[in-house]
């Protein structure tokens, strides 16, 4: 039997970044095209909020089963599963009916709930401790990268070929990333200490978070930060188009600008956390 191929950290970072970026792009494509989608469906643009809510309800539920999925199938395979769920969700949502968009959003949300636990398992295992915050931050720049792609590519492609084509393009990209991850999957999914098996839906991790004061405050602060971020990216395009008179492409470009600032902030705070050797000080101000 041949020796296992060593894991390349740059390749691993590229894989986890790509999965994060495409998962985020799948989430944000319809909000970035909200005026065009609403016109097709014959509904108000502000009703995009319901679609975003459906995605994140599914993501919260999916994240509760993510640990079991990672333990059963491995973190790299879980990332592939997330990509294939995004493929299905984008294709279903492109059917352009309200029930189809609800069903597609549920699939996209389930995919999004799997991405971070799988990537965290891989990066925590292979990242050097003195650079771990920076490496996690670089992976997490996949969020604004996906937002930038949704804001820049989405409106331009939608005007040229229809908003359905944007979802098809995202689905195609997800297929490519899932296939590209396959050659190194076996090495990444070898678990130290032997294979595990998940037990399905579990609240044990949630109980563990609330049992620790530090984890509890970290989770609550992250919840607030994420809520503000989500509200901005979900409604920015609708606000710019309907209230401020921007065209769809210009509004998408503004969304991309917001995401560029977010990417820079992620890397900066990752560097600061590594320099301080205390990531909690970056988000819990009373620790200063």
Give the second-level CATH assignment, the architecture.
Up-down Bundle
Determine the structural class based on helices, strands and strand pairing.
mainly alpha
DSSP E strands, number: 0
Radius of gyration: 19 Å
What's the main sheet like?
A: none
Q: What is the CATH topology classification name?
A: Growth Hormone, Chain: A
Short description:
This protein has 12 helices and no strands. With 288 residues, it is mainly α.
Topology:
Layout: H1 9-32, H2 34-41, H3 48-73, H4 75-93, H5 98-126, H6 132-140, H7 142-161, H8 163-180, H9 182-188, H10 204-211, H11 213-242, H12 248-276
Describe this structure in words.
The chain is an all-alpha fold and 288 residues long. The protein has one domain (10-287): Up-down Bundle (Growth Hormone, Chain: A), CATH 1.20.1250. Helices cover 79% and strands 0% of the residues. The protein has 12 helices and no strands. It has helices at 9-32, 34-41, 48-73, 75-93, 98-126, 132-140, 142-161, 163-180, 182-188, 204-211, 213-242, 248-276. The longest helix has 30 residues, at 213-242. The chain is globular and about 50 Å long. 42% of the residues are buried.
């Amino acid at each position: 039997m041949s020796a296992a191929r060593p894991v390349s950290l740059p390749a691993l970072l590229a894989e986890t970044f790509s999965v994060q970026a495409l998962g985020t792009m799948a989430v944000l494509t319809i909000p970035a095209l909200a005026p065009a989608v609403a016109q097709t469906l014959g509904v108000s643009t502000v009703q995009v909020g319901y679609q975003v809510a459906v995605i994140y309800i599914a993501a919260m539920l999916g994240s509760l089963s993510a640990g079991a999925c990672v333990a059963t199938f491995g973190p790299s395979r879980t990332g592939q599963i997330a990509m294939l769920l995004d493929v299905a969700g984008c294709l279903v949502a492109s059917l352009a009916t309200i029930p189809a968009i609800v069903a597609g959003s549920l699939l996209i949300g389930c995919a999004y709930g799997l991405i971070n636990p799988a990537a965290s398992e891989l990066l925590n295992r292979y990242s050097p401790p003195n650079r771990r915050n920076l490496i996690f931050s670089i992976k997490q720049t996949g969020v604004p990268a996906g937002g930038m792609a949704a804001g820049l590519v989405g409106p331009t492609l939608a005007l040229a070929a229809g908003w359905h084509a944007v979802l098809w393009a995202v689905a195609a990209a997800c297929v490519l990333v899932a296939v590209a991850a396959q050659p190194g999957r076996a090495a990444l999914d070898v678990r130290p200490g032997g294979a595990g098996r998940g037990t399905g839906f579990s609240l044990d991790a949630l109980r563990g978070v609330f049992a620790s004061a530090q984890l509890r405050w970290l989770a609550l602060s992250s919840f607030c930060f994420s809520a503000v971020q989500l509200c901005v990216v979900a409604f920015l395009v609708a606000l710019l188009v309907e209230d401020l008179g921007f065209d769809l492409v210009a509004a998408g470009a503004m969304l991309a600008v917001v995401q560029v600032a977010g990417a820079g902030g992620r890397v900066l705070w990752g560097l600061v956390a590594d320099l301080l050797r205390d990531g909690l000080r970056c988000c819990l101000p009373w620790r200063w």
